[in-house]
Amino acid sequence: MNNTQEQIHFTVNIALDSDNEANFTYSVDGKEVTGGGVVRTETAGIYSLDEATLAKGFLFTGATITDVDKEAPCAQDFSFKVSDNGRKITVIDTDENPGTACLVFNVECNGNPYTSTDPQVINEEEN
Prior knowledge:
By secondary structure, this protein is mostly beta strands. Helices cover 5% and strands 56% of the residues.
C-alpha cells in the first residue's frame, strides 16, 4: 500500500438467518455502514471479521468483483488479498476508471461456502 492511499477499516459481522443465508453487517468506528461507497482516490478497504463471527468459524476465502455497467468498466481497477489466516481481506481500488463495481465477499464456515450481498463501490473522478 502506498502513502497516498486512503484506508478505510471495516468490521464485519456475519450471522446465518433462518434460511441458512449469510447476512453481512459492516461497521466503521462502531457505526453501521453499507460496506461500499464512493471512491475518488486510490483506496484500500480493509475488512476484518469481528470476534463473534470468528467464534462461529467464518473466514474470508476471497472476493468476486464485476462491472455493473459494461459501458463503464472499472472492475479491473480492483484487487484483493486475504490475510491473517482468513480473518481479514483488503480490497484495493486504484480508481483509474469511473464506473460502478459489484463487490461480493466469499467466506467459509465449517466447510460451507457463503457469499455476501453486493456493497457496491462507485468510482468517481476527483473534484
